[in-house]
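Can you give me the bound-state structure? Components:
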Amino acid sequence: MPRCWTDMDAFEAFIDGGGLVEADDGMPDAYRRAVFAFIEMHANSELMGALTERDWIPKTPGLRHKMAVLAKTQDEIGHGHLLYMIAADLGVKTRTQMLEDLFAGRSRFHNVFHYRAVTWGDQVAIAFLVDAAALISQQAVFKNCSYGPYRRILRRIITEEGFHMRLGEDRMMRIAEGTARQRSMFQESLDRWFWPALQLFGPDSVPDDELLRWRIKSERNEVLRDRWVQRFVPMLQSYGFTVPAPDLRWDTEAERWDVGPIDWGPLERTLAHGGPDSARRIADAADNWSRTAWARAALSNGSSGA
Amino acid sequence: MSKQEAIREFLLAFADDEHLMGQQHTEWIGVAPFLEEDLAFSSIGQDELGHAAMLYELVLELDGIEPTDTAVDTLAFGRPSHDYRCCHLVEHETKDWAEALVRHWVYDAFEAMRWHLVAGSSMPKLAAIARKALREEVFHTRHADALLDRLLAAPEARSRLLAALDAVVPMVPGLCEGTAGEAVAVAEGAAAGPTAGLLEPLLVAIDQRFSAAGLDGRSAGSAGVGGPSAGGAANGQRGRTSRSPDFEPLMARMREVLDYDSEAVW
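Here's the bound-state model for the whole set.
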């Protein structure tokens, strides 16, 4: 039975009481738009992440290794597929509109996918560092998310992302125990991907962050970012890699790693689609989309599938 | 050629076809017209690569080599080009999704027939792989058929698919070409009949699939396809020992990381 609230205060009391909002509820428009934008960006990021990784899938070294990487990318696109469906159910945009906005550069996706994977080491760094960052964020959303359909889908996504991160960790360990050339390749990948992965969490949450107030997110950006830093700095060091943070220090009083000041300029540029690979990534995706328009047009009489 | 060598060649052709077909499918992840097709191509690609790995293991067992993942990869990626036995259809590079879809249908129609040839093989492991693969092929064929049913009913899509068919059909005799000594492998019971025997039924199947949707009297055979006896001579494969111009760039792409450091384990 769809529910309605008389005003925002009543809605927020429902949220504060641990209530779960469902797609057919008469939710306030501001909440609808906020939860939609959050899920749309997540869906876009799954898809653009798959596009970033696809550059290297055909080059995966090994037959069964390639099957595992294909399965991972299939999962990512599957996540995008599910997320676009629940985003479309919110009635703000159709799935086709979301995809067209993405390929026209009108909507956002995570900063990390505005960078190009230039070596196989980058592919491993993405699976290891970026998937872990995404997993930490998603676990925090899942824990207490007020939007029911998103929370239920996150349960599945988190399970699969856990496998991806372990695949990345396993590949990273092989490299760590590998040849000097392998280690050098991966160190260069770390130099490229450490900061973008850290910046994925975003700057410190603002005090009146409505995503937190409405439990669309459950934890502050800086808390999640710190969780990632405390886990990955020692892990990378234990495998003999250098964390590319010149001001990195161990804070003996707080007993935690401090990466020093964070330059948010690169993140801001990616948000404006001005990242190092933003133009190519979006143009390629748009080109592929337009070259297969004939197939979507042919099926448009029935279910568009797009 | 000894009996073992003949069987090895037969298995290698099968494995190499599965490997490169799976490889070609990997190129479509994320760039198909629908998210559902991205998912389908990646799933089918995984199945084909899995078949290749199992067939390479059989080849290694014949060679007396323990079929570890490393040994499989050495066989799959590490041979000189003249030692591959794939057909030109699976080497063929395409940027056209219509062509990729038509090739997917044609290859899977052929593949199902090929698995049936070995489903009662005298090699128990090969017969077991065939039973597994045939269960998967039902889904591959159903997928391609369902999509073609709808696309061929739309004029522009039909015209693109028929143009794609024109590009694919000349490579069909090569797909059905056997390896040297295949008659010996058949006599030994490895397969129920020669691969070349699949050409006629495959051409009929192609005709039925595409004529039914308005091929207007054109037959697949009219696209320059010779009979089974034309075999390698018609398409330049020379018993699957000759590579097409697309092979070397494809293999260079597949080997890029492996070649980066030959000592590395990834």
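A couple of observations. Chain A touches chain B through 48 residues (CB under 8 Å). Strands of chain A lie at 249-251, 256-258.
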